[in-house]
Amino acid sequence: MNTEYQPNWDFYFTELDGSQASIYLDLGLNRIAPLKDKNYLLTVILTMNDPQENGFSSNGESEKLFKIEDKIADALIEPFNAIFAGRETCDGARIFYFYAPKSNGVKKSVKDVMKAYSDYQFEVYFEEDSKWKQYFKHLYPTNYEMHTIMNRRVVENLRSKGDNLSVPRDVDNYIFFKKEDQKKKFLKEAEKMGYRLSSERTDEKDSDYPLSVRLTKQLPVTYHDVLDFTAELYDLAEQYDGVYDGWETKVITGKS
After folding, report:
1. Does the bond joining 34 to the residue before it have cis omega, within 30 degrees of 0?
2. Running DSSP on this structure, what letter comes out for residue 58?
3. 129, 93, 122: which is closest to 17 by C-alpha?
4. Which of 33, 123, 153, 177 could staple 211 via S-S, CB 3.0–4.6 A?
5. What is the DSSP-derived secondary structure letter of residue 179?
6. pLDDT band of 167, cuts 50, 70, 90
7. Are residue 117 and residue 175 in the same domain, yes or no?
8. Residues 6 or more apart whose Cβ sits within 8 Å of residue 142
């Protein structure tokens, strides 16, 4: 495997055909996929026995589902030179995605594992996916979903440093634009929302988004607060053909 590859597992929530879904995947595969020696997709669809009303796994069943996942991975990764790309949880089903070389024994290996879990209904599919379409178009997050992942990582980093996330503080947000008039219209709307322009610059070397602004506002940085204000700015930037590029703040410990 490419030496540049580093596993980078994370998760995000999304909506699939009107239902809540949780996607857990190896983001690191984005740097090296598609892999020519793993051009077949193995999909295992496992029907849960005790899902929650929202279609996600219950606490009581989660441990067993993880055990099944580990058993399937052990049966595929080394024996068939497969790689685990990710899993999806939605509508009472847990779906596993593996990429592997073509082999007649892959499906049988999964079925052998599932003999020990006869109380579960499951389906197995093995088909060519040389361009890794399922990984890129289904598992991999959209730009906005990637922001939610990065938001969570930043919040958890602040929390690990003892930050009191509920305390409002200056939060800097960065947005990029193609044209001056779009930037000005955006800033006018952002000002109404309580943001102030802290700085702006032009990068003539950037032919796509040469204009950038830094907006600042006093905000708490709990994960829910961050989701709210980043979604607000992300959507507003899109209205004016801009790109929201994230946020940063200083660590605040104590009550204030």
Report:
1. yes
2. P
3. 93
4. 177
5. -
6. very high
7. no
8. none
Does 1 reside within a domain? no
197 SS3 class = strand
- Tell whether 20 and 112 lie within a shared domain: yes
> What CA–CA distance (Å, rounded) separates 7 from 154?
19
Query: Is there a single domain that holds both residue 16 and residue 108?
Result: yes
Q: State whether the Cα torsion 184-185-190-192 is positive or negative.
A: positive
Q: Which residues pair with 200 in a beta bridge?
A: 213
Rounded (5°) CA angle 110-111-117 = 100
Assess if residue 3 is contained within a domain.
no
Closest among 7, 57, 53, 14 to 32, alpha carbons compared: 7
Alpha-carbon dihedral sign for residues 52, 54, 59, 63:
positive
Note the pLDDT of residue 1: 56
Question: Is 26 within 8 Å of 8 (Cβ atoms)?
Answer: yes
**Residue 107, token pair as written in the block:** 């499906």
In the chain, the percentage of residues whose pLDDT exceeds 90 is 93
Q: Are 188 and 197 in contact (CB under 8 A)?
A: no
Q: What are the φ and ψ backbone dihedral angles of 71, each rounded to 5 degrees?
A: -65, -40
Containing structural domain, residue 162: 152-249
Question: Tokens for 70?
Answer: 């580990």
- Radius of gyration of the chain from its Cα atoms, rounded to whole angstroms: 22
**0.85 exceeded by pTM:** yes
Q: What residue has token string 């929201």?
A: 244
